[in-house]
């Protein structure tokens, strides 16, 4: 296994000196390597080029007239899925880890770029190139923090790897796709997860301390489809906090500026995407974007149950109401938040409509963030599909 301790080089440098995206840097790791030379082209926050890269990766860009394409990106198929025998300690049922293990075990790839954690801190990301299933499994579960996955890029050429799987989130994959042809690989597979509202390690601490009753024992959390954040604690207990009870006024600055400016929630450029938000509660959500994705998915088909995705409810009013509420940092008292959680769980959006609810809420918030903080970037930085999604809502003028 080859591992990198995060930001070791960056720390020795003057702040910002190797971060051309400045405060919008998502710390994807590219700038910790000599591939920094490509940053102006590759960085998702300097040069938004999703449509062009979709065409290269998938043979076509998304069709904005097709609602599912517009929201979720190019795909051949999507479904709800879960492992028949979930992997203990995985974020969900461990479909991501299982695919990566199969690819190594079957010799389809020689290494897997994934994220373990440091010995001292379960949430401090440590990108590695895993060479065995054990090393892949040691990377299971989200590290809900910005992770410099691409800091391992130099080692790919040095270790003479020719067939590689990279697991990562949208901003990492966008930069990877741009430098892909420089890596000397014969075959690259990309397994993506959706990603939103990521934080620095310090930001995560603030989030946990503000939201959980026992921040030090949280081993894993997720913003679930039942409109609650589920915190899993060391003793196995689950603490549920309704979204509407989050202390928005205290949490407004917690998310990284890169994530407040991101419009690639669904990881448009991965071959295969494994998330949860387009599936019903308890299920994972799989999107096969291209033939490589199909090949990867086929490796675990016998290990999982699948069912078609559904779409129920109407998100639009809830999204429109949340825009001024978020802006003003409105926080409901806990009893009201719980009540609202129960009601919205019964009548609120489900399946793909829940995913659209989440995308709409984040894209409108992020559009306003870019407009207010980086107005000069607004037009080029916001992809056309996101402009179309945002245009369904009334936003404040300023
Ligand atoms: C920061 C983050 C935010 C997410 N937000 C959403 C969301 O809003 N909606 C949604 O549908 N899905 C989201 N996901 C995906 C979802 O939480 C699960 O990761 C996914 O369903 C896979 O579950 P699993 O059990 O198959 O994964 P596991 O088998 O547990 O594997 C998890 C994999 O994630 C990788 N990983 C962990 N942390 C990071 C990181 N910081 N950066 C890059 N890779 C990482 C690891 O290398 C590991 O291989 C998010 C994922 C991350 C990392």
Automatic annotation (TrEMBL):
Pfam families: FrhB_FdhB_C, FrhB_FdhB_N. GO terms for molecular function: oxidoreductase activity, acting on CH or CH2 groups, with an iron-sulfur protein as acceptor. It comes from Crocosphaera chwakensis CCY0110. Residues 78-154 form the Coenzyme F420 hydrogenase/dehydrogenase beta subunit N-terminal domain. InterPro entries: Co_F420_Hydgase/DH_bsu_N (IPR007516), FRHB/FDHB/HCAR-like (IPR045220), FrhB_FdhB_C (IPR007525). Residues 162-308 form the Coenzyme F420 hydrogenase/dehydrogenase beta subunit C-terminal domain. This is Coenzyme F420 hydrogenase/dehydrogenase beta subunit-like protein. It comes from the Bacteria.
